[in-house]
Amino acid sequence: MRVSGEGLLLGVALDALFGDPKRWHPVAGFGRVASVTERFLYKDSRWRGVVFAGVLVGGAGVGGVVLERLGRGSVLVTAVSTWVVLGGTSLGREGLVMARALERGDLVAARERLPHLCARDPQGLDEAGLARAVVESVAENTSDAAVAPLVWGAVAGVPGLLMYRAINTLDAMVGYRNPRYERFGWAAARLDDAANWVPARLTGALVGLCSGREAWRVFLRDGKKHPSPNAGRVEAAFAGALGVRLGGVNEYGGRVERRPEMGDGRAPEARDIRRAVGLSAVVTFAAAAVVWGLR
Question: How confident is the model at residue 231 (pLDDT cuts 50, 70, 90)?
Answer without folding.
Answer: very high
